[in-house]
Amino acid sequence: MTTTSPFDLQAVQRLRKGAVLGALAALVALTMVSQSASGLDSGVHEGIEAIGLAAIVFAIVGRAWCSLYIGGRKKAEVVSRGPYSITRNPLYVFSFFGAFGVGAQSGSLTLAVLFTAASLLVFHMTVRREEAWLEGAFGPTYAAYRDRTPRFLPDFRLWRDEGELTVRPAFFLTTLRDGLVFLLAIPLFESIDFAQAEGWLHVLARLP
């Protein structure tokens, strides 16, 4: 059995945040030198942005919903009810939607998929380390939960809920605040579009 300390879990979380920031910086740099093939003012471009905004809102609401169940209890117990009954990592699943929405603000489906793929890669690597910590901390209890619950892809047949929840407002508000960061993609990509339209940024590729 793998054994780790709480400090190891904190290190994994720091690694995850660093990897996310690195991947985000690289993809934003790519966005600055590329443009949607349909053009900045086309209906397709605007439609993809609108779909992306809906995905971002879905991600923010979904992450906040998950926080009602996890509530800072990740280090104290195996949470296996509500969204955690159908997937082991519902917060990350909703984050995938957020990543898609961020990329979609470029007006390019290609970039939206690249943002989603990058988030999948980052979270896949960090989840494996988190799972090692959880198995070391909770042993057979977590192993049984892991064996019956998918890592990412939800299985809605497994749904089980709590009769009541003890909500930790501070954790809920922190998760909501973190989710709202996704909305920063809107002014960021609008600024990139404006800079490209003005010729301040040179477009090297046009992506569908």
Mean of pLDDT: 88
Number of strands: 2
In DSSP terms, counting alpha (H) and pi (I) runs of 4 or more, how many helices? 7
Shape: elongated
Structural class comes to mainly alpha
The ordered H/E elements are: HEHHHHHHE
- Give the helix level as a range of percent: 55-70%
CA-to-CA gap between the ends? 47 Å
Radius of gyration using CA atoms only: 19 Å
In the sheet with the most strands, the strands line up as 1-2
Could you explain how this protein is built, in words?
There is one protein chain. By secondary structure, the protein is mainly alpha-helical. The chain contains 7 helices and 2 strands, in the order H-E-H-H-H-H-H-H-E. The protein has helices at 6-32, 43-70, 90-104, 109-138, 140-148, 169-180, 185-197, and strands spanning 34-36, 205-207. A two-stranded parallel sheet has the order 1-2. Helix 1 (6-32) packs antiparallel against helix 4. The longest helix is centred in the middle third of the chain and has 30 residues, at 109-138. The chain starts with 5 loop residues before the first helix and ends with a strand. The model is unreliable at 1-7 (pLDDT under 50).
Question: Any chance you could write out the topology, listing elements then pairs?
Answer:
Elements: H1 6-32, E1 34-36, H2 43-70, H3 90-104, H4 109-138, H5 140-148, H6 169-180, H7 185-197, E2 205-207
Parallel strand pairs: 1-2
Helix pairs in contact: 1-4, 2-3, 2-6, 3-4, 4-5
Question: How would you summarize this macromolecular structure in one to three sentences?
Answer:
By secondary structure, this protein is an all-alpha fold. The chain has helices at 6-32, 43-70, 90-104, 109-138, 140-148, 169-180, 185-197, and strands spanning 34-36, 205-207.
